Amino acid sequence: MQNMVPYINKKLTYITSEISISLRCKYAHMSLNTGQFNTFLFFKLPSAWWCGVRLTELEENHAVASVRYRWINQNPFKSMFWAVQGMAAELATGALVMQQIRKSGKSVSMLVLTNKANFHKKARGRIFFRCEDGPQLNEAMDRALASGEGHTVWMKSIGTNENGEVVSEFDFEWTIKVKGSG
After folding, report:
1. 3-class secondary structure for 103-132?
2. Radius of gyration of the chain from Cα atoms?
3. Is 78 exposed, middle or buried (0-12, 13-18, 19+ CB in 10 A)?
4. What pLDDT digit, counting tens, does each position of 126-160 carry?
5. How far apart are CA 169 and CA 167, in angstroms?
6. Is 177 within 8 Å of 113 (Cβ atoms)?
7. pLDDT (0 to 100) of residue 35
8. Half-sphere exposure of 153 toward its Cβ, with a 13 Å CA cutoff?
9. 37 confidence band (pLDDT: 50, 70, 90)
10. What secondary structure does DSSP assign to 35-84, as a single string?
11. Cα(75)–Cα(123) distance, rounded to whole angstroms?
12. CA 116 to CA 137: how far, in whole Å?
């Protein structure tokens, strides 16, 4: 078994590197699809993946992530733990940011500076987090690319259950800055 570990590590490193390279460089002119993104999620954000967070839609102006209430993401009150909702909500906003960075062809850093959340009812069943702030993000990205300075943009992700009822709302302030400038 000990002899297998280096082989497994090499294989996983190779797979991870291949996915990272393809996500960063190989198809820079194409948009990410949800399957590629969910594979990236498995390797780079495994806690979200194991909790069931998945990107289900990624368009130019909106993204949707979903997560189903189950044993691994429960809280003691028979609903979904708030942090799991936060992971799905952040993914819906972050996927848009990553897509814009990729579309720019530049090396741009991204980081959540601030977040806030409001909870309206217990999260049970499948919860869908939708962010429609692509246009605001596009403007912020254009300003960051033109100036070379860091810019922030607030993005909202609204979580609804299968009945369309709002369960929670998350706001994320993303910072974006072209790397190597200033």
Report:
1. HHCCCEEEEEEEEEEEECCCCCCEEEEEEC
2. 18
3. exposed
4. 999 999 999 999 999 999 999 989 999 999 999 99
5. 7
6. no
7. 86
8. 24
9. confident
10. HHHHHHHHHH-HHHHHTT-EEEEE-SS-EEEEEE--GGGB-TTSSB-HHH
11. 10
12. 18
Amino acid occupying residue 55: L
- The tokens of 108 are what? 């741009």
Q: Which of 146, 136, 149 is nearest to 177 (CA)?
A: 149
Indicate left, alpha or beta for 78 from its phi (over 0: left) and psi (-120 to 50: alpha).
Answer: left
Residue identified by tokens 């300075």 is 149
Residue type, 129: F
User: 96-105: buried (b, 16+ CB within 10 Å) or exposed (e) per residue?
Assistant: bbbbbbbbbe
Three-state DSSP class for residue 6: helix
Tokens of 66: 């979903």
Closest CA to 44 of 74, 68, 24: 24
114: left (phi over 0), alpha (psi -120 to 50) or beta: beta
Q: What is the arrangement of strands in the sheet containing 151-160, beginning at the earlier edge strand?
A: 54-58, 63-68, 126-131, 151-160, 166-178, 108-119
Residues paired with 158 in a beta bridge: 130, 169
